[in-house]
Amino acid sequence: MSGNIPGLATDAVLKESIPVPDNFEEVKGIDYSNPESRNSKAKFLVNSMKTMGFQASSVSKACDIINEMRSWRGKNISELEDHEKKGEFDDEGFQKTTIFMGFTSNLISSGLRDTLRYLVQHKMVSAIVSTAGGIEEDLIKCLAPTYMGEFSLPGKDLRDKGMNRIGNLIVPNDNYCKFEEWIVPILDTMLEEQEQFAKEKGADCLDNDVPFWTPSRMIDRFGKEINDESSVLYWAHKNKIPIFCPAITDGSIGDMLFFHTFKASPKQIRLDIVQDIRRINSLSMEASKAGMLILGGGLIKHHICNACLMRNGADYAVFINTGQEFDGSDAGARPDEAVSWGKIKAEAKSVKVYTDVTIVWPLIVAATFASDESDFDEKK
Amino acid sequence: MSGNIPGLATDAVLKESIPVPDNFEEVKGIDYSNPESRNSKAKFLVNSMKTMGFQASSVSKACDIINEMRSWRGKNISELEDHEKKGEFDDEGFQKTTIFMGFTSNLISSGLRDTLRYLVQHKMVSAIVSTAGGIEEDLIKCLAPTYMGEFSLPGKDLRDKGMNRIGNLIVPNDNYCKFEEWIVPILDTMLEEQEQFAKEKGADCLDNDVPFWTPSRMIDRFGKEINDESSVLYWAHKNKIPIFCPAITDGSIGDMLFFHTFKASPKQIRLDIVQDIRRINSLSMEASKAGMLILGGGLIKHHICNACLMRNGADYAVFINTGQEFDGSDAGARPDEAVSWGKIKAEAKSVKVYTDVTIVWPLIVAATFASDESDFDEKK
Amino acid sequence: MSGNIPGLATDAVLKESIPVPDNFEEVKGIDYSNPESRNSKAKFLVNSMKTMGFQASSVSKACDIINEMRSWRGKNISELEDHEKKGEFDDEGFQKTTIFMGFTSNLISSGLRDTLRYLVQHKMVSAIVSTAGGIEEDLIKCLAPTYMGEFSLPGKDLRDKGMNRIGNLIVPNDNYCKFEEWIVPILDTMLEEQEQFAKEKGADCLDNDVPFWTPSRMIDRFGKEINDESSVLYWAHKNKIPIFCPAITDGSIGDMLFFHTFKASPKQIRLDIVQDIRRINSLSMEASKAGMLILGGGLIKHHICNACLMRNGADYAVFINTGQEFDGSDAGARPDEAVSWGKIKAEAKSVKVYTDVTIVWPLIVAATFASDESDFDEKK
Amino acid sequence: MSGNIPGLATDAVLKESIPVPDNFEEVKGIDYSNPESRNSKAKFLVNSMKTMGFQASSVSKACDIINEMRSWRGKNISELEDHEKKGEFDDEGFQKTTIFMGFTSNLISSGLRDTLRYLVQHKMVSAIVSTAGGIEEDLIKCLAPTYMGEFSLPGKDLRDKGMNRIGNLIVPNDNYCKFEEWIVPILDTMLEEQEQFAKEKGADCLDNDVPFWTPSRMIDRFGKEINDESSVLYWAHKNKIPIFCPAITDGSIGDMLFFHTFKASPKQIRLDIVQDIRRINSLSMEASKAGMLILGGGLIKHHICNACLMRNGADYAVFINTGQEFDGSDAGARPDEAVSWGKIKAEAKSVKVYTDVTIVWPLIVAATFASDESDFDEKK
User: What is the pLDDT of residue D378?
Assistant: First the structure.
């Protein structure tokens, strides 16, 4: 082999680049010469992550989008025509963003429940979508705790002991027995109420304006009945924040409703999902601006995105989950896929953070929704 | 450093192992000295994968479990008491496995729809659970095609053109306009029928025994109306295979139902999900043996598992999806988590294959459900 | 709520799409009316997957790219100037593609080893990159088998028994003891040879043209010594296919070399990695066309890509692994990231298949490298 | 259907559980009634995550393990026999943990470089393993910046502009041209030094005790030459922390070495990897306790684990990466797999956090290595 450096290789390796555009932002990390870097606060950390790249940057961008969706203000209600007086308003009467938050069942099983409850308690979100477990585990935790476990605990041993595993968490099956005791009288009352209006309305009992049971109405009732300040549902009821759960039968509540059909036969509670799709879609259409906080994937993600199609797209979107796009799942789809459907506006601010929600949501909330140290007293 | 080999290290590195137990199976792969290895058939390939390890072995195990759940036979119906005459029977009257198949919406969007339809057409499954897209995309494909695209196509351009992206697939929005034209008259008729029985029954119109609209009943009607042999729903209707979809409002059908509530107001179609949970749970309890084929994650996985809790666990379970357990999601949970809940029996045969379903389901079906070359004629 | 369908929503939902371009390809799956669909052959299956979408399409595209890289032919050697007579040629003297194949260690531990060996045995690849385990496990399997295990086997029990786990595989530690017995005499000889040329050359013993030990030269020696037709290394030696492994010390071979430094002290085998980077880069520069088959991620992926930068990009690239791009890893990078670096040509044919390699490589090979049923005899 | 609740189902659903063991820990999250929850500090956050479950708990456990490995102290050096005076000692002469930190190349490209440098600057780790990019990008960043980009930027456009993409980061190719200018004179000097000792030693120039170039020695030289306080390599040189990189030719340094073989021919720098395996393994054997911090997967993970086999296992292990075990990769293997190999002790404290490192490492460091607010001044 000769002593000449091969030109083909040097041309490829040492190819010149164009001048770096002025608007390029340098990658840099935490400045450890700053005393604030020690045991740093959430906002310092998140701000430092902005120029770190990879998912650190995405976390920082998620915080920016959340801050923007929370701080947006439109016209004052006094300036609006009557038919425009809809959507969310702040205390001074200015239009603000309608925020749809979706979370999967497992997040309520986890300690994130306290963070989710904090957001609902302080009216920081406008509407919620969850799956069945996200409803029932919130209630059950008011009756008995969930415990820490391990991902590797063998299923047979656990079943023998009546211990149910959710990832690295354990829920004793007695919790579900307690839940049954709690819910059956409520279901009885719900059935009575249904019968009552059926008797009153007769053949018209299926009309639009009848207070027919829907998942969101049932959840609101549960929130009222549980009457426990640790509960997401309690505060949603208090603060009139609707919780949607079209497949509410897919879990323990479904088991209880199933048993109840035998107990109540030939009567049966009916849960209508058409009225609820009208309700969530209407919230989307009425919103001045719409923001999405999607924690997890599957139904809760698609349902909020689909509702936002009714307004030709959300204005802000934060997705956090572990789904990947390569399998064509909606769970794994990037925000840009939702843009193609008109579920997110082309000009919207959006980001997807690829991670387990529990890792990052406490930090994000500490740097956004729960960032203001001065107003602690009034938040109590 | 001295010339002596360090004993600490050699003891650790050269630690002796116990004798290899007799039942240990050697890892080995394809025997390329066998002419069958060339352009090999599905069964040869899958059999060779059994001892390959990693997910190759899991694919092979999935085939074994499918073959076992399909071939199991119990008593003849003539030997059974009347109250035992439930569940599935083969043509000679022997008990067989009730097979619950769940698939996510995206699989119907993909070319797997033909494979799923094949299974339904030939009565190879007993009940189905899907999400809204899994219902409506099957119908829409009878009206207009879905097309190949790219994961990287920009959302804004697509929206401008009215082209919706699902992973690397494209659905023109006109398809949904055609779907609206098709479905509105059917919804009108469904509402009429609902009004009819409400008039007849009056206050009793909510009772158990009323043919109230449920997702599964609506889907069956759609299958009848579409009347197209390429459709999963068509064959499900023909073969009386129920399709469950508790959140059927979460997609285009929901959009259409939403619009219909305005058109029909104050009337409104009601879709009850309580009756459907009773229906799927009953199928589980009546089954002689229960098998699960879970293609994807989320609702469709949880719903079938939950139904199988009613019988204290499925006997066979095949999970195929890309979910991981580390985030505590049900989507990512291993079969052993379902064992802890009593959703899969401790002694059941189960496997999870970690992959996009489209990669592996065609091969698995070719090696199991569609493996018999001799009986092609009668299958037509 | 009024009876008028909201225009905002209908405009968004029923947005018209542009006419479907003529070149759009319909999504469709397997045609089960075709008898070939029963227990179907690999090529039928892969061809049917082309229009299925998601990763099924990617598998089919991978096969197309492999077929194209294998069938490409350039000029005949008789037409070339002397300095152009480099790269790979077929038996008739026509230029063909230089194929770089990379695979991670675990694939040799798995049953895929037989498939990888088949490719090397029949000279279907031109050069290989692997990691240390990919070298030593091939040798060790000639001495004692690897066994099937389970992902969930507890580590402590296994260590007590001297059983090492690789995913769902088990390697008894005695295998490594046997490996030590096999390798020590070879290392002794290698050291002698090194001393010999050092004595001969004196101060010039570090020059370019000295047969200094490098990972690829050591691997070639091992391939010769193992003398076993089941071995990848054996056939690589036989067929003069270089195997590169810059970090060959990172595993059992490294352990043995470490021990050997004590035994041989003050002498020591030296393994130079500079000569090997010159060797692999030269192969890339000399190639008429370059193709990449990347099975897994990490070093083996980056090393082949980096070598292809020396020719301003590969012409064909197939990546198969489970890495995701969101963490900014090279393992997870899409081919398009390599295009930005000049490691893959902008006009190259490339695809990434997102899956465990063991699921899909047997099928891909059956449909490409091992697809020709007619030429079985001569392949023996 | 009768009015009796089915016993099979109620028995399964309402199965009693054993009493909850006393040592069970309740799942709970952040206490938002605590003012510290607002814009919370890293330690508060991480402590609150301990009982959240899923990966939040794993992050908290990682911090506990790090604190434990950092605070462990053994005997005082004055109590030890001469042959025991090895491993790491604190300023008072007490034995402390030898901490091996591995990180992948992309983390140096990201803003995490500042965090990694902080750890090296303050001697918080004992030895480092990285891949080629982890070495060269640290040096290159001293010459010119890396910039923020997007994952979706098209490769062809970037190549035309000479802009290289690493996930969502951009490195102008001119940076590599600057790197070439910087490194060539250093390589020239290194070659001169090599020639010098070869001349002096003659045939003995390959012996153990010759300062032959190895990756770790070359990296140390680079750290000295770069002489820049922003650099990881600079501080590693200053603080005598070895950096191992067996495959250092796999990147831009390899390109430069490749070119240099032509320039210097017939002379050639030789880089020996056998001496380096002896060096890292010796560090492991000499350690009083060994801890592993593995940031990413692939070579850097395996190399540290393998070194720890030489001591029959690490005492502490923290893995953070996105790898999954299902494909049998070492990258995705859980710590328990390393236990089976003797690379982690059975009684060691270990955890794997499943996430992109950039999301979580800044928080972890803020809550551990950089948690002490009081000692800021002395840390400057």
Answer: 43
3-state secondary structure of C127: strand
Query: Is A332 near chain B, with CB under 8 Å?
Result: yes
Averaged over A57-84, what is the pLDDT?
Answer: 97
Q: State both tokens at C84.
A: 């152009």
Residue A66: its pLDDT value, please? 98
Pair type for strands C169-172 and C163-166 = antiparallel
Which residues are D90's β-sheet partners? none
Average predicted confidence (pLDDT) for chain D: 96
Please report the number of interchain residue pairs, chain A to chain B, with beta-carbon separation below 8 angstroms. 296
Amino acid symbol at B143: L
Residue D101, number of CB atoms within 10 A of its CB: 24
- Read off the pLDDT of each residue in A117-122 and give the average, rounded to a whole number: 98
Distance CA C33, CA C52 (A): 17
Which segments in chain B show pLDDT lower than 50? 1, 378-380
Task: Give residue C373's pLDDT.
Answer: 84
Q: Is D49 on the interface with A (CB under 8 A)?
A: yes
| Per-residue pLDDT at A145 | 98
Residue D209 confidence (pLDDT): 86
- φ and ψ of B290, to 5 deg: -120, 135
State CA B50 to chain mean position distance.
23
pLDDT at res. B380: 43
Pick the closest to residue D245 from D282, D227, D220 (CA basis): D220
- A274-317 pLDDT, tens digit per residue, is 999 999 999 999 999 999 999 999 999 999 999 999 999 999 99
Q: Can C343 be counted among the known catalytic residues?
A: yes
Is residue B270 a contact partner of residue B306, using CB atoms and an 8 Å limit? no
Integer Cα distance of C17 and B158 in angstroms: 9
Structure tokens of A340? 């193609």
Q: Which chain A residues touch D255 with a CB distance below 8 Å?
A: 9, 13
Task: Please identify which of the residues B96, B343, B345, B352 carries the catalytic annotation.
Answer: B343
Check residue A3 and give its pLDDT: 62
Residues in chain C where the model's pLDDT stays below 50: 1, 378-380
**Alpha helix positions (H), B130-268:** 132-140, 155-161, 174-201, 215-226, 232-238, 252-264
Structure letter (DSSP) for residue B207: S
pTM of the entire structure?
0.97
Nearest to C309 among A13, A313, A327 (CB): A13
d(CA C34, CA B182): 31
Say how far apart CA B50 and CA B27 lie, in whole Å.
9
Q: Do D162 and A16 touch (CB under 8 A)?
A: yes
Contact D295/C at CB under 8 A:
no
pLDDT at res. B208? 87
**What backbone torsions phi and psi does residue A309 show, to the nearest 5 degrees?**
-60, -30
Q: Which residues in chain A have Cβ-Cβ distances shorter than 8 Å to C86?
A: none
Q: Give the whole-angstrom CA distance, residue A79 versus residue A85.
A: 9
- pLDDT score at A376: 61
ω into A266 cis (within 30 of 0): yes
Residues in chain C: 380
Q: Partners for D (CB, 8 Å, 3+ pairs)?
A: A, B, C
> Is residue B279 less than 8 Å (CB to CB) from chain A?
no
* D378, burial (CB in 10 Å: exposed 0-12, middle 13-18, buried 19+): exposed
Handedness of CA C104, C105, C108, C110 (dihedral sign): negative
Residue ranges of chain D with pLDDT lower than 50? 1, 378-380
Nearest CA in chain A to C324: A324
DSSP H or E stretch at residue A295: strand A289-295
With an 8 Å Cβ cutoff, is C286 touching chain D? no
